[in-house]
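Suppose you are handed a protein chain with no further information: no name, no annotation, nothing but its sequence. What can you learn? This example shows the usual starting point.
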Amino acid sequence: MHISFEGAASEVTGSRYRVVATVQGRPLQFLVDCGMFQGGRDADDKNLESFKVPPSELDWVVLTHAHIDHSGMLPRLCAKGFRGPIFCTPATLSLLQVLLMDSAHIQGQELERAVDRQAKGKWRGPLPEPLYSSLDVEQCLSQCRPISLHQRHSICDGVDLEFFDAGHILGAAIARIHLADDEAPAESGPKRLVFTGDIGTRDRPLMNNPERLPDADVLVIESTYGDRLHRSLQSTEDELVDIIQRTIAQGGNVIIPAFAVGRTQEIIAILIDLIQKQRLPFLSIFVDSPMATQASKITEKNLRLLNERTQSLYHWLAAHPNAARVRFTADVNESKALNQIKAGAVILSASGMCEAGRIIHHLFWNLPRPQSAVVIAGFQAAGTRGRLLVDGQKTLRLLGQEVPVKASIHTVGGLSAHGDQSDLLWWCQGFEHEPSKVFITHGERTASENFAVVLQSELGWKAPIIPHRGQLFPC
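A reasonable first move is to predict its three-dimensional structure. Written in structure tokens, the prediction is:
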């Protein structure tokens, strides 16, 4: 059996791992995740590359969760000939219907804008090439096969799949695959392959703690924050309270670029919790993202998958409707109307890395205002506008203009949906024995290398491997 690392290898986005094996005399090839690369022109070029093998030769895909850096290339895979099943959790399938359609819509809009600018003589170079259409998304969704957590499913003779709660976003799963590899000694039994997808933090709002597994022969683990520790939730809440109170007092708005799926719902839960605890006054919270609105509705329908504290907050707010105003913008006109609000608004909008969507307009109107604040609440990939803000950029190009950055910029790391080094180490401590092969992925090189050192020093694990993109390893 071999694993080919075709994305999220020494980088964070583009998760894609291809497993090649022979089971009961039958050659098999399948993917775990098929995500989009994100972060500038280099990412665009990678997304346009041909798949390493013809998609028609793949047997199935195992999808850990719905985030675009894990799922975003699935429609293109199907458009290029893949016709096998895509296994995911039911909640992930619900979110995919929102995320993938939005992705196709954005790509179509980018092409339309480019054609319009070309007609006006304002576009140079080739036009952007959409990766897929809404029809491709529909085809992809028709191939999805939902499997609930803890339901061991036989994919074919000699291969079983089971999902466990990853504690990352709604529906996010750790995938354990039992595979009877013909090349392995018969007495050793099926190989246990564990792919973490993205592992959440412990004791955080919204999601349950990640589930730990007792065993694995091959482990592929993420390391987004493998080189650092998040601030505690308490200190994060203290900082949020200070930012919001100060910004409202000085007559500004709080702008929060937030991933539509997971992060937006988590921030709403934190703000409502702080209001319930009387640490914040009545707030006008605006969620300006069609995708976040849909994702929030899906979240409400799946309350049983959230932790008990979050479930109680939903019920409390329903019983105290005057405690906070949480408004989901209904259309573009209502979104534009938010630009006229000069003070007192908390606006959550996508995209989370400030690359597209309605957040661009809110930054355009609020970045030049020293009274306002921008709260960065998630990972910002290299090359994105969000990363430029985090790195102290003095101006930002928005809507064709150079906009001065005069608003205060705050990075609130304690809100990450990715576990930090201590969370990842805690999760690995759940194994009764060291896996035979450990691959550290989904992290910038420094983060992965630091986490490898910690696994060796703290757990005595011998030789974690940090693959580069395109490398193939026997397992």
